[in-house]
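Morning!

This is the sequence you dropped in the shared folder:
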Amino acid sequence: MSKKLKVATVSLAGCFGCHMSFLDIDERILELIERVEFDRSPLTDIKTCGPCDIGLVEGGVCNSENVHVLREFRDHCRTLVAVGACAITGGLPALRNPLDVADILEEVYHSRPGLAKGAMIPNDPELPLPLNQVHPIHEVVKIDYFLPGCPPPADAFWKLLTDLLAGRTPSLRHGLIQYD
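The structure's back. Tokens below.
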């Protein structure tokens, strides 16, 4: 039996819908587990990524922590795949891009009705600093493949992974790309 390839995933600024769609491969996950070993992923609950063959990234880059996590993830992945609209274009989180971050924070923490008197914008070194814009991940690191969709359907994940496992360039036919 040949060595299993290592697969890892990470979620940045997004809704986690791409991970949920990936899990929709249902019982095929058992076939996949025969061929891959999962590193960082919701299936393992491993929080850090060791060296791996295939990395799947969902979500855009909206804060300093996302930048750090993405760069570290890229360093550990031989092949990196941008998964879903948020990773590829910034997606829904990027709708804030025309707005000023300071104005957003002011509205959310000072001006919003129902806030406690004296509410303040959080200022703790544990909180990641927001970026002025949400960025697609290819603006921060090199991406090898793109898996479009919002979210990509389970069959698209399956096709991408089985192509990569077979040493083929992934080719998604009509019907495997959708935006719900």
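Headline: The mean pLDDT is 92.

More detail when I'm at my desk.
O.
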